[in-house]
Specification:
With 351 residues, the protein is mostly helical. About 5% of the residues have low confidence. It has two domains: 103 residues, no CATH class; 181 residues, MetI-like (MetI-like fold, Orthogonal Bundle), CATH 1.10.3720. The chain is built from 16 helices and no strands. 72% of the residues lie in helices and 0% in strands.
């Protein structure tokens, strides 16, 4: 009952937490300077007109009066003339977290129409990196723990710390320079960017798969390297702590083998800290990575959020923020469920 009560509290906390996150970010988009209204006015002044009504008004009065008049029209068009709580209600409920709102940069498309074209790309990269990260890091961490202070542990530690020391953007740019033919004399083994080639005829499944893997290889290396060192060392240290625990020595003292003590008892408990990474990984699975997608010109969710933020397309940016916050909260809830599955001894009565 304590576990069910804890899960019920966690589920109930999702709603106020989500509302709190979105209220803060929504208010920031309304109060920070340089919003979509200002961007449209700058375009109008820089391009000598941003529409027929502005050009006609410019012929009838000075620039200041045109700007004031046009500002009010834009505020009414975007709904910024309403009270703040009404704007938030319309965004959250009426327009379903802004997904039904038209994009400020692409008025003929809603935020959801722009987002749904990017979700499959981010899922491809996020899911592949998620699986590869856990498939590589957990066995590597176990091997390092079982060979602690041996040659394999020392050599792999060098690889792990070098991976940790190189930032994602630096690794991505270095790989692109060395392996994509951007510098004369270096290899031209991988495409510069994108996620697929242009086929003259319809490719077979294996041709399509090989082409997709060819385009995804370098970005996936950058995705995996971001959490490679942390997850590997976390798995190693967690397993070492469990191996040195009293209950492992008790199993061996009662006649059990060391292998049985490790794999039947210590290993399961060592996975508890690993479950903490599920939430952030699920967020990356859907939200993508701004830096990697920009370097390799990948049309994913991360790049869309960056373009929306730079262009002050707040309808798209807030919709992406709401989706990302939802994924993060659900990921944290999944981590709690995994805690209970992995270690039934965890006491939730005081939480």
């Amino acid at each position: 009952m304590d576990r069910l009560a804890y899960l019920a509290r966690r589920v109930l906390l999702l709603v106020p937490t989500f509302i709190g996150i979105t209220i803060v970010c929504f208010c920031l988009t309304r109060f920070l300077p340089g919003g979509p209204v200002e961007m449209r006015l700058l375009k109008m002044r820089g391009m000598g007109g941003s529409g027929g009504e502005v050009t006609q008004a410019a012929a009838q009065g000075n620039g200041a009066s045109v700007s004031d008049k046009y500002r009010k029209e834009l505020e009414e068009q975007y709904g910024f003339d309403m009270p703040l709580h009404v704007q938030y209600w319309n965004w959250l409920v009426v327009n379903r977290m802004g997904l039904k709102l038209p994009s400020y940069d692409y008025p003929n498309k809603t935020a959801w129409q722009l987002i749904k074209t990017r979700i499959p790309v981010s899922i491809w990269f996020g899911l592949t990196s998620f699986i590869l990260t856990y498939m590589v890091c957990i066995p590597l961490g176990i091997a390092k723990a079982l060979r602690h202070r041996q040659a394999f542990d020392a050599f792999s530690s060098v690889v792990v710390f070098v991976s940790y020391a190189i930032p994602n953007f630096a690794l991505g740019m270095a790989l692109k320079m060395m392996l994509c033919g951007t510098v004369d004399g270096l290899w031209d083994a991988f495409p510069i960017g994108g996620i697929s080639s242009k086929f003259v005829v319809e490719p077979t499944f294996w041709q399509w798969f090989a082409d997709r893997a060819w385009h995804m290889f370098l970005p996936i290396v950058c995705y995996v390297s971001s959490g490679f060192a942390m997850l590997t060392l976390l798995m190693k240290n967690s397993l070492l702590d469990q191996i040195s625990a009293d209950y492992v020595r008790t199993v061996v003292a009662k006649g059990g083998t060391r292998r049985r003590a490790i794999w039947c008892h210590a290993f399961r408990n060592a996975l508890v800290p690993i479950a903490t990474g599920i939430g952030p990984m699920i967020t990356l699975l859907f939200a993508g990575s701004i830096i990697i997608e920009t370097i390799f010109e990948i049309p994913g969710m991360g790049r869309l959020s960056w373009d929306a933020l730079i262009g002050r397309d707040y309808s798209v940016f807030l919709a992406l923020l709401a989706l990302t916050a939802s994924f993060q909260l659900v990921g944290n809830l999944i981590s709690d469920v995994l805690y209970m599955i992995i270690d039934p001894r965890i006491d939730f009565s005081r939480k």
